[in-house]
Amino acid sequence: DWLKYPDRFDTLTQPYVAYHGLNFAEEFGPAAFAVRARREGLRDFGGALSPSSAFNLLQGVETLSLRMERHVENALAVAEFLDGQEAVLKVNHPGLRSHPDHALAQKLLPRGAGAVFSFEIRGGRDAGRKLVESLGLFSHLANVGDAKSLVIHPASTTHSRMDDEDLAAAGVSPGLIRLSVGLEALSDLTDDLKRALYRSQK
């Protein structure tokens, strides 16, 4: 019953301006979430995929479990590699024993904690920017979940208008780097990071 918790589920219990003020919880009761997900999906993405899009999606889904195994395996190995680097202050990956939520992650995510994580390097904004510029294999993009490895330095891109105080309030340090680890050979990923970390500290 969404209406029992109006503050917790305000996207369902408050009038939705983009749908002419419709209150999904009042209109559809317990089915409010399912109806909103379906209606917004149809409105934003359309009712049918093109044949080529459907084919590509099907091809991707058939091998998704295999790719995810590689993503997760690579991400943990890269996190372990970074955890041992002098230029790295902290690695935020629940697969590491040093992470405060490691035990919880082992319980809830027994097959791995995904392929996206962050780490913090010495030198703040300048070092973070230099690291990203020095990477050759990682693509500098804000999205995540690609087959190729991606990197972004929030303090100089997505959060560049914030000063250090505002960054800290948002939980983002000036030297924070976010990785989305792809399917490349592990040795290529670690070699690329090793060179970039060295250059970032110059």
The biggest sheet amounts to:
5 strands, mixed
The count of β-strands is 5
Q: Helix count, per DSSP?
A: 9
Structural shape: globular
* Spans where pLDDT lies below 50 across 5 or more residues: none
Strand content: 5-15%
What is the N-to-C succession of helices and strands? HHHHHEHEHEEHEH
How would you describe the overall organization of this protein?
This protein has 202 residues and is an alpha+beta fold. The protein is 47% helix and 10% strand. It is built from nine helices and five strands; from the N terminus they run αααααβαβαββαβα. It has helices at residues 10-13, 24-28, 32-45, 51-62, 64-83, 102-108, 124-134, 164-169, 186-200; strands at residues 88-92, 116-121, 139-140, 150-152, 176-180. Strands 1-2-5-4-3 form a five-stranded mixed sheet. α5 runs parallel beside α9 and α7 (124-134) crosses α9 (186-200). It is globular and about 60 Å long. The termini are far apart. The mean pLDDT is 93.
